[in-house]
Amino acid sequence: MQPVTTVHYLALSVALLLIGTVGVLTRRNIVIILMSIELILNAVNINLIAFSHQLQNVNGQIFAIFVITDAVAEAAVGLGILIALFRNKETVLADEVNLLKW
Predict the structure, then answer these.
(1) pTM (2 decimals)?
(2) Mean pLDDT in the chain?
């Protein structure tokens, strides 16, 4: 049985990045778009931790904690905006949001 190497983590990260990017670019539902952004951030975290482990340096792991904190704040603010949007427009589709138009 082969040990898990950095290449395996990079392959997982690329898969998560592709799934997240496709989700952001093709979906219309804002909840799914926010979840896809979270997948992209998790792909970044996997890269940071994999290279941190390979280089025997803790800086990548510390930076990953900051990325996780940023993702939590983004999710909280995004869901708050989404709830306010749903109360006003009664939709969560990104195509039907035109609040900034005159």
Answers:
(1) 0.88
(2) 92
